[in-house]
Fold this protein.
Amino acid sequence: MEIKKIVVIGSGTMGHGIAQTYAANGYQTTVVDIKPEALEAAKKLVASNVKTMLNADFITAEQAKATEANLFYSTDIKVAADADLVIEAVPEDPDLKARIFAQLDGICRKDTILSSTTSSMNIYEFVKITNPERLLIAHWCNPPHILPLVEIVKGPETDHEVAITMRKLLEGMGKSPVVLNQAVPGFIINRLNLALMRECSYMVEQGWVSPEDVDTAYCCNQGMKAPFEGPLKMMDFIGWDIGCMAGMFLYPSISNATEVGPLAMQMLDEERLGVKVGRGLYDYSGKTREEVQQERDARVLEVVKLARKLKAEK
Ligand SMILES: NC(=O)c1ccc[n+]([C@@H]2O[C@H](COP(=O)([O-])OP(=O)(O)OC[C@H]3O[C@@H](n4cnc5c(N)ncnc54)[C@H](O)[C@@H]3O)[C@@H](O)[C@H]2O)c1
């Protein structure tokens, strides 16, 4: 099926960035929210994102124009009636998501692809729709208009062709989709993040190293190669014989904790929740949250541009 019309339900952190990406790539996209003020906020965010991306040469002037021309806003979910693809991006609440998909099931054509941006839930356990072969998860990363990864997670009844359609659609917009054949907790990326966070926290908790030095060790080693060399490819360069020997020796000493450790609990107790409150392991006071995020995003934009260039040269 050719995808032309797209509806995104929820205009928050993920919804507005996903919608603007489709619009920039020529798809007629409507973003729906129950709150008119959320739509107003989304409009402002999209305008500011487009400005930043244009200034950074991340998008072309044509794509900036297309974003404006192709993006519509509505408070009425019934606009999904003639959509080819609907993307659910409402908060991570199973009852709410189940309700939205039940509504969409009544509104949409029976061949409309329905997808969820859930970052952690096995929606296939509680979303009940007719023709479940058209249901899938497409988990974009934050910020969605910048980061290339999208995890496509198939359910037990998802048609392989639907996953392929989604994959091609995303690839056509310069995204880097990956397909997970079943919904395992954390999908791919959060399993990796948590494995790394467990060991990083453990080393700090043991008093072996400061948090700053753990971050430096990561950024100045794996971080330098990350855009073009994943952890498995890295083993090809290290040599699997060396890797096996290191594994035999090191696995017994690596954390196998099954609970959140003392470092994270301390951060909660001290209300050092991170950028959103101005203080986490690092101190962000003296700058607004927006300033801190903009600085981070400007750097990420440069890295993604470099990664695109390296991919094109491959
Ligand atoms: N925030 C992230 O970093 C991130 C990253 C990846 C995936 N996700 C996932 O994406 C989804 C959306 O998260 P978010 O951070 O964008 O949430 P958010 O709270 O920023 O935005 C959700 C929006 O949905 C709207 N909404 C609520 N009920 C609605 C309804 N019945 N109809 C229409 N709109 C409704 C809200 O008004 C809000 O504007 C979640 O499943 C989340 O797990 C989030």
Summary: The pocket of nicotinamide-adenine-dinucleotide is lined by residues 9-15, 32-35, 38, 89-92, 96, 100, 117-119, 139, 142 (CB under 6 Å). The chain is about 50% helix and 10% strand. The mean pLDDT is 96. The two ends are 31 Å apart (CA to CA).
